[in-house]
Amino acid sequence: MSDCESRPRTLVEKIIDAHTITMRPGRSLIYLDRIITADTSRPIYQLLESSGHRVRRPNQTLFIPDHYTPSRGMSPLDAADPESWRAIVETQDYSSREGLQMFPMGDPRRGIQHTVSIEHGFALPGLTVAATDSHTLTQGAVGAIALSISADMVHALATQTLWLKIPGQMRIVLEGRCKPGVTAKDVALLLLARLGPRGAAGMAVEYCGSHVRALGIGGRMTLCNLATELGARAAIIAPDDITYDALAGATFAPKDAAWDQFRAERLQLRSDEDASWSRSVTLDVGEVAPMVSWGTSPAQAVPVTGHVPDPRNEPDPLRRSKMTEALSYMGLVPGTEIRDLQIDQVFIGSCANGHIQDLKEAAAILKGRRVRVPTLVVPGSGHVGAEAEALGLVDTFRAAGAVWGESGCSMCNSMNGDIVRPGLRCASTSNRNHMGRQGPGSRTHLVSPAMAAAAAVAGRFHDIRDLSELP
């Protein structure tokens, strides 16, 4: 037995060890089981081609256009501009020539890459997955190590390997039960508010505890997704019956007896009880309230019953400066009650909150009500969209006056033409709120799907724990 196998290890360490080809001080060359490319991969493809290389394992590489894909339809006329459509077409053509696995435009399975990867079993327990998107960590929700890489993608496509700096190990223990109206998004925002945007910088985060075990796949995806905003290198949740039940029969998952064997071989995919952690944090989720971000970082968030903070009360000069800058950009006055903030627009969707459970929660608020502000609802995938149709959720959204869009990243990153105009305030279920994220001059407030739906109805933030005063 090797030294790494004899010592107590975390789940992440076990998976890295199982994929290590060779080591150098502080780094491991690991084998990648799966790679994902997208319509943003044109520079990567160009570098790969100009270097004389080809994709080494086309069957283990999946192309999913999602960033530039229009919400209004699937034709060139629906695209934000000709260049956006060209990016889709050129990356799609290159992927086809290389023989990649593909969910192209028009394919009902297409959607946001992280959502689609989990739905179709491209990410599986114990596998290593790499993509260039910063929220690739989402796929750790099913027990995979999912890594966001940039220029290293050329090396990854050409060799099916990656040089990985060994991350520190961090455990976030979530215990207890959330109160009604509180979701995984609120838990994630509170963690960010308490730990800060570098609270897990460079670390591999494992979420565990009774709250995590009770979450469905959608809630687990939200937690792993927002770990990116903590600065994490990876995020993971140990697979359990909920995981395997969700993945059984998926497109890229083993089938029948092979699936039973795959599952049996992964019974030990969990951290050893006496594994060593660089940092450990525990939170009683019963303490969490519905959260609203007020600034230009997801970590700048407070309960909906709170108020805009005053930088003068912040002793740290750097944080005080950032708070002042954020308040100026957001057009906010310290002391203003969060529930007094008027909303101009609402976006429900993204890889953080585009799962079917997210849409159910939003629809429950909107049922029998009408929105007061423009509201766009975009499913995380074609599969989610079809399920929402079958459940009558789409009818609920449309009856409320919301617009239903085609699956994709949409207004989360504003790359497909879905934007928030300068100076307007948007309640958004996405994961980032930095300056200009949803369009030049846009002002983004991050919330849960139910909170976003309530804001759409009230025209301001509303505490969803009390719906008696919601119109």
Automatic annotation (TrEMBL):
Molecular function as annotated in GO: 3-isopropylmalate dehydratase activity; 4 iron, 4 sulfur cluster binding; metal ion binding
Ranges of residues in domain Aconitase/3-isopropylmalate dehydratase large subunit alpha/beta/alpha: 13-459
Endpoints of the signal sequence: none
Catalytic activity from the UniProt record: (2R,3S)-3-isopropylmalate = (2S)-2-isopropylmalate
Swiss-Prot/TrEMBL GO biological process terms: L-leucine biosynthetic process
Pathway: Amino-acid biosynthesis; L-leucine biosynthesis; L-leucine from 3-methyl-2-oxobutanoate: step 2/4
Keyword Metal-binding included in the entry's annotation: yes
Cofactor(s) in the UniProt record: [4Fe-4S] cluster
Iron keyword on record: yes
Enzyme class label: lyase
Keywords noted in UniProt: 4Fe-4S, Amino-acid biosynthesis, Branched-chain amino acid biosynthesis, Iron, Iron-sulfur, Leucine biosynthesis, Lyase, Metal-binding
Documented EC number(s): 4.2.1.33
One Pfam family, short name: Aconitase
Role noted for this protein: Catalyzes the isomerization between 2-isopropylmalate and 3-isopropylmalate, via the formation of 2-isopropylmaleate.
PANTHER family on file: 3-ISOPROPYLMALATE DEHYDRATASE, HOMOACONITASE, MITOCHONDRIAL-RELATED
Subunit (UniProt): Heterodimer of LeuC and LeuD.
The protein, known as: 3-isopropylmalate dehydratase
Taxonomic source organism: Microvirga tunisiensis
